[in-house]
Design a protein that fits this description.
The protein is of the alpha+beta class and about 190 residues long. It has a domain of about 110 residues: OmpA-like domain (60s Ribosomal Protein L30, Chain: A). Helix content is about 30%, strand content about 10%. The protein has a 4-stranded mixed sheet. Helix 3 links the parallel strand 2 and strand 3.
Length: about 190
């Protein structure tokens, strides 16, 4: 091979290698944000009580302040929206939560949010990735309709890859059918 052809093949190989490496690695595993029942599980773990959503009454806390994200009494402390089996429609019980987060985004235009759509283990990997994306997109659309800006919100699907619970029971699967809202610095 001539030196010019050799250099050209090296350049082409380098470009191909860089293109193959351009995708982002998966995000490191984090503790679930906004776990309602206080339990944290990972792969191989189980929870001791089912996830329930209790109404949140904020007393003297501005739910549009960023400090409200860490206050358990705040309307924006909870970060997960749970879905029915094979659905991506936001249930009425979660609409106040979405509204509170939309107000926080509207009042703080510099903050970014990532919505991670999740599915339980039933169904193929491809189907669960698609369903997780539909769930994340549904939350994003609702947030935008209520005041959040598109530039602030990213929606991604994790499919069945980040379960909160790994038991094969309906109460466990219900915890895995969710959209998690993460703010700047949490993703």
């Amino acid at each position: 091979m001539r030196p010019t052809a050799f250099k050209l093949s090296l350049v082409v190989s380098a470009i191909a290698l860089l293109g193959a490496c351009s995708s982002q690695p998966p995000a490191p595993e984090q503790n679930p944000v906004g776990v309602v029942d206080g339990s944290k599980t990972g792969v191989g773990g189980s929870t001791t009580s089912p996830t329930t959503v209790a109404p949140v009454t904020a007393t003297g806390i501005d739910p549009t302040s960023l400090a409200a994200l860490k206050d358990p009494k705040s309307a924006v402390f909870n970060r997960s929206i749970f879905f029915d089996y094979d659905q991506y429609t936001i249930k009425d019980e979660f609409k106040p939560l979405v509204d509170a987060h939309a107000k926080l985004l509207a009042k703080n235009p510099g903050i970014k949010m990532m919505i991670q759509g999740n599915a339980d283990e039933r169904g193929s990997r491809e189907y669960n990735l698609a369903l997780g994306q539909k769930r994340a997109d549904a939350v994003k659309k609702a947030l935008m309709l209520l005041g959040g800006q598109e530039a602030q919100i990213e929606s991604v699907s994790l499919g069945e890859e980040k379960p909160r619970c790994t038991d094969q029971t309906e109460s466990c699967w219900a915890q895995n059918r969710r959209g998690d809202m993460l703010y700047s610095g949490e993703f």
